[in-house]
Amino acid sequence: MRRSANDIHFNPATLPMQASIMRRLIRRQSSTQQIGQLVEDKALLYLKKHGLKPICRNYRCRAGEIDLIMNDRQALVFIEVRFRQQTKYGSGADTVDYRKQQKLILTAQHFLLSQHYSEWPACRFDVLAATRSSQDKTSLQFDWIKNAFDLQ
Fold it and tell me: pTM of the entire structure?
């Protein structure tokens, strides 16, 4: 029998190993998502304490996702939450590069269009970098960067 490039080949001896690898990946991914959710929960509480009012969480569209959308007096604030266990390789804020900024801008524009504002409010993009506290490993330290980047 001749095989084509589209044929899928299974080796029964490797199936149990592949299944165990998949289980570990799924477990790791879900624990990462759980940690991300907990960090976002704490970030939301932190920002509320500083006077911001929540509008939306985890707004998604084809362009990307915005973790938090909040109101700060007259400004609409789009917030990217980044978590790093350690800062020896840089803070979470360092990971919001030009490409990520462009995704956030496109997603924010989608949000604004979907809300049918009669007049667009003043907007800003903030980054909230969270790291584990050096004194207490169960608490978080936040570095809030207001106006982290502008529309370009």
Answer: 0.74
Helix, coil or strand: residue 41: helix
Q: Which residues are bridge partners to 53 per DSSP?
A: 71
Q: Which residue has the tokens 């985890």?
A: 58
Rg (CA), the chain: 20
Match 């939306």 to its residue by tokens: 56
Domains of the chain: 12-149 (3.40.1350.10)
Q: How far apart are CA 127 and CA 130, in angstroms?
A: 10
Q: Please give the Cα distance from 31 to 47 (Å, whole number).
A: 24
Q: Which of 60, 27, 58 is nearest to 43 (CA)?
A: 58
Residues 67-108 pLDDT 10s: 999 999 989 999 999 887 666 666 766 667 899 989 999 999
**Is the confidence at residue 29, as pLDDT, over 60?**
no
Amino acid in position 13: A
Q: Are strands 140-149 and 64-72 parallel, antiparallel or unpaired?
A: unpaired
Task: Please give the single-letter amino acid code of residue 128.
Answer: L
